[in-house]
Amino acid sequence: MKYHFYVGNDNGNSEHDLMIDGRWIGQPNVNCAVDELPWSEEQAPESFVKQLQDQLVVTVDSPAARPGMYYIGKFALESGEIIDNIQIGIDAKSDMDLPIINTLAQIAAVAVQKAYEEEKKIPSSISVEADMATALPVTQHTDETAAKFEKRFTSGEHHITVHLGIQRVAVKIVFPFVKTVPEATPVIFTLQKDAAGNWRDGELFGDFAETYRLEKKFNGSYFKDKRILHVDIGDGSTEYPITEGNRFLRQFVHGSHHGAGYAIEEALQEFNRLIHLPDSPRQFFSDVIKNGKHKYHARALKTLRRPMESQVKQITQHVKKQLTKARNEIDLICVYGGGSILMRSVLYPLLKTICDEREIQLLYIPDDYAVKLNALGLDAFVRGKIYDALKSKTMQPA
Question: What class has domain 2-182?
């Protein structure tokens, strides 16, 4: 079986958000190397397919990463094994195996699901050709690191075995072309257009349109010529690029090592003490924070409050620095990313004051979209004319 996929791949420090073949997938960006399968007895392979992302086990044979068997994402996080994650402020994503392994695993999983949906049976092998747009933090993105990251995907065939219980599916993945852009910049595509290429409208802009008393038929065309300061708050970094229309303004590249992850790292020791654990990973704390019904939710919030205020203060200073550099010639500030959800109650009023003083609008993206904007933008980019032009130019014989 052969498939062609478009992939918009946002490899965050905490969350791995992808659009693969039009499907959105969100998983903790962790994995762990293991020596054997977690299942010994025979189970119906079909029972794995629907929730495959949550119980994903793969064997990787790739020129770009260390070969071996891996638990991926949520399954790794809940396994109790020693997990590998991205060390915030330390690891360069273009050098790491983790983003490669997790990306290949998620593409292979979607291929298995698609094959089962179409054929109503589990295939023995699948071949996937993937066009992909991905991103690196502004602070790590250079022509050199982008090319290096792209080459890790494009420099050969990747063979992934997806384990459905004790049944195996062999998935071969090749990338004819990959483009790596600075994080945050793909969002301009998401703000303007939806997946069908029409002007975006609806709940994404609800609060914004109400706050600024904009017309009822408000849509993404509003942003097509706006000068926007982006504040993309992740776990380990916050990016502050400025875009004008569809252009990324290279002279305003700026990022800082601030984010929800630093606050969580600071809170983690006290949190572990309160719940009587010697240790727990950052992603576990993130899951507890997101789940209001978790028995440790209140304790997690309590330990996070002061470190979070410190991170918000730092991010606000960087926003002011960018505004000063741009002489306040900004139409609106757009805030998103996983960290923006946790910081909203503290950060929103501070930024709103800054914006009101400078006659700038504030678009604080709703929680349901905050982590998806980059992946949605990358998906729009990989399907667009600019990507096609870059691919054609690269693929031309010398």
Answer: alpha beta
Which of 160, 168, 167 lies closest to 41 in space, CA to CA?
Answer: 167
Under 8 Å between Cβ of 100 and 51:
no
Q: What does the alpha-carbon distance between residue 40 and residue 33 come to, in Å, rounded to a whole number?
A: 18
Q: CA-CA distances (angstroms) from residue 168 to 1, 68, 124, 132, 317?
A: 15, 15, 7, 25, 52
Run of H or E residues at 151: helix 143-154
- pLDDT tens digits along 32-66: 999 999 987 778 888 889 899 999 999 999 999 99
Could you tell me if 285 and 267 are in contact, meaning their C-beta atoms sit under 8 angstroms apart?
yes
Q: How far is CA 54 from CA 49, 73, 260, in A?
A: 10, 7, 24
Structure pTM? 0.87
Q: What is the 3-state secondary structure (H, E, C) of 293-359?
A: CCCCHHHHHHHHHHHHHHHHHHHHHHHHHHHHHCCCCCCEEEEECHHHHHHHHHHHHHHHHHHHHHC
Q: What is the pLDDT of residues 199-236, one digit of tens each?
A: 998 889 989 999 999 887 899 999 999 999 999 998 77
* Residue-by-residue DSSP string for 53-117: GGG-EEEEE-TTS--EEEEETHHHHTS-SPPB---TTT--GGG-SHHHHHHHHHHHHHHHHHHHH
Q: Which CATH number fits domain 187-375: 3.30.420.40, 3.30.70.560, 3.40.50.2300, 2.30.30.240?
A: 3.30.420.40
Domain spans, the chain: 2-182, 187-375
